[in-house]
Structures are given as C-alpha cells and as structure tokens.
Amino acid sequence: MPELVLRVHRTLLERAVPPGSHITAQALADQFAVSRWTASEVLSQLAQRGVVVHAENRGYYLSARIADIPVDRDPPAGRDLNAIYFKIAEDRLSGKLEESVTESFLKQRYDLTAADLSSLLNRIAAEGWIEPRAGYGWTFSQILRTPQTLEQSYRFRLLIEPAALLEPGFHLRGETIRKLRIAHEDIVAGAADTLPADVLYERGVAFHESLAEASGNPFFLDALRRINRLRRLLIYRSMVDRRRFYEQSAEHLLILELLEDGNIRGASEALRAHLEEVIRKVPPKVQDALDRPLKPA
C-alpha cells in the first residue's frame, strides 16, 4: 500500500488538482482499480502526511499545503492493517477462529485499537465474510475450505457466466470496458508480481461481476456475488504462484476486445474456455497451498 499512497500523491500533483477539491474513496478506487476499502486506507494515510484534510461527516479534501509536501516523505508509523487483515483471514480459513466472536476478543487477540478494529470489521463485512450478530458480537459467514468445493463453484460459474453474455439485454458500457482494460493491462505489464493478493482478487471479481451486471438480469449478478464471497479466502491461498494471473488477465483482455468489436457470442465462448482452463488449473494449486500460511503477498 505505501507504493499506492505515493502514486496517488504524485498523481494529485501532476494533474494540478486544485486545493480544497473533494477527494472520494470511490473515485480513487475507480481510477486506480483497487477496492474501496483500500482507497479509504490510502486517504487515511494521505491525511497523516498532510496531503488531504478530513472533515467530519464530509470526507476528505485536498490540502492547500500539498505543493509543500515531498512525495517521498514518510508518514507517521502505524499498524499495518492489511497484514492483520490477512492474519484474520488465515486464522478463519485454518479454523483458529470460532464462528462467533466478540470485539473485545478480536482486539485482544490482534492487539488492535477500537478504531483499527472498526476499520477491519467494516472491510470484512463489506466483503461478505462476517456480519453483526443480533444483539452482541460478530458471526463469520460460510466459506469454501477445500479444492473440491472451489471446483464446484467454478462449475456453477461455467453454467451462468457465459449465458449472462447471451441475455437479450446484455450491454457493457464503453467506460466500463476502458476501466477494466486499464486494470488488466497493468497486471499483464508486471503488476501481477507486485500487487497485494486482495487487490488482484478485486480486479478479477470486478471483471466477472461487470459482465454479469451487463446482462441486465439481476439473478446472474446475485448468484456470482454470493460465490465470490464464499471463495475469497481460499483464492487468497492459491495466489502463491502468480504466473497464472498473466494468463488470465490476457484472456480477460481478449474477451473485452471481442465485446468491443460486437462479437458477443465469440466473447461468451472465450469466457467459457477461460473458466474451463481455470477449473483445470486452480484446484491443484489450492491443494498445494493449503499447507502454507496465508500472507499479505
């Protein structure tokens, strides 16, 4: 994340964004192809540097001092919440965390302040693998834990995703194609080796969910979102070998090219072939990775 903070800081300077401009997490998430939570953390770190100013209940605004702050200036030392996020994910996946937990337990186990814990719980809840328990505490959601269940999820996706492209109301906006292309060209250009696992995951999810949403049939998107929530932690485990992200992103770019050319049936067939290849390769990699600890790679 420090590299992303520097990129955003540098971009704000290069584009001569006027001081006082409202800077939103969603805008940064769209521009830099990261999750909204990651963008929020970037804004928090930029506030620590003095690049932006936080106004209660109003958000972040570009500081009048931005031109006086060196891009490479180190922010105040703080906890690496992304590392703690992956530790929680690892403990949940390996069964070290019970299904129901309290905030006091989590604060003590991971040595967190109330503010840091709130940030992490909000992120995990937004991703769909924890939810508030009625009355008190939190409950972890069901997740996929074995290569077999992951393969079953891909076989279900093989049924619905290519079909989504063939829906009568399918339409993928040009602006959506542009954003997806930028994100995947970045991966092919080398970001597959440097981006954190959660950001790589979000880019893949954004691609597939954007196509499902473009079908115009909400049932496709609802089904895919549920599967993506279930498989997130297990997919993190399979990210040890990152070579496949070059291949998969290249296949995503081909599908986007076909859609841009109006060849929807060809894109549907390419998406089917893409998922079939994933089914062939991913479960063995997950099996190999199950004995390795999950790290914020």
Number of domains in the coordinates? 3
What gross morphology would you assign?
A: globular
Strand-and-helix sequence, N→C? Answer: HEHHEEHEHHEEHHHHHH
Which strand order spans the largest sheet, edge to edge or round the barrel?
Answer: 1-3-2
According to CATH, what is the class of the largest domain? Answer: Mainly Alpha
Kindly report the name of the CATH homologous superfamily of the largest domain: GntR ligand-binding domain-like
What is the CATH topology descriptor of the largest domain?
Four Helix Bundle (Hemerythrin (Met), subunit A)
Largest sheet: 3 strands, antiparallel
Individual helix count: 12
Architecture (CATH level 2) name of the largest domain: Up-down Bundle
> How does the helix and strand content classify structurally?
mainly alpha
Number of strands: 6
Q: What would the average pLDDT be, to the nearest integer?
A: 84
Q: Name the beta content range.
A: 5-15%
Helix content, binned percent: 55-70%
CA(first)-CA(last) distance: 11 Å
Q: Over the alpha carbons, how many angstroms does the gyration radius reach? A: 20 Å
Catalogue the unreliable spans: none
Characterise this structure:
By secondary structure, the protein is mainly alpha-helical. It folds into three domains: 2-68, Winged helix-like DNA-binding domain superfamily/Winged helix DNA-binding domain (Arc Repressor Mutant, subunit A, Orthogonal Bundle); 81-140, Orthogonal Bundle (Arc Repressor Mutant, subunit A), CATH 1.10.10; 147-289, GntR ligand-binding domain-like (Four Helix Bundle (Hemerythrin (Met), subunit A)). The chain has twelve helices and six strands. Strands 1-3-2 form a three-stranded antiparallel beta sheet. Strands 4-6-5 form a three-stranded antiparallel beta sheet. Helix 2 (25-32) crosses helix 3 and helix 7 (147-165) runs antiparallel to helix 10. It is globular, with a radius of gyration of 20 Å. The termini are close together. The model has no long low-confidence stretch (mean pLDDT 84).
